[in-house]
Amino acid sequence: MFETREQNITPENIQKLVRTFYPTILSDEIVGPFFIEKIGADIKSKKWQIHLELLSNFWASMALGDTDYQGNPLAVHFDMPGISREAFERWLELFHQAVDKVYNSKSGDFFKERSTHIAGNFMRNLGL
Length: 128
What we know:
The chain is mainly α. The protein has helices spanning about 10-25, 30-40, 45-65, 85-100, 105-125. The chain has a single domain, classed as Orthogonal Bundle (Globin-like), CATH 1.10.490.10. Helix 1 packs across helix 3 (about 45-65), helix 1 packs across helix 4 and helix 4 (about 85-100) packs antiparallel against helix 5 (about 105-125).
């Protein structure tokens, strides 16, 4: 069955993107261990639900100018022993795959460009 991909960015489909993306993270050999160490392996846990909401708010602030996100996304990455350029590149690959599942190319391009820019900034700030 053909599934229609989103044309417009809304808070609801940002949540869909986040909830499409993060289960793939947990099963990934490169990126998964970083998240499992910090948040755990059960995506249905309260810690994960809080994280998914935080990330939905983060992307809504980026895409829609929403003001619900309060945080510093870079800070937590300084306390991740073993974080690498390879992990960021894999994160981007998986994120872009999730974007392609949720959005058409026009809307999806926003998330791909923004995530690539953010990952580049993080790697520079982390010295990777």
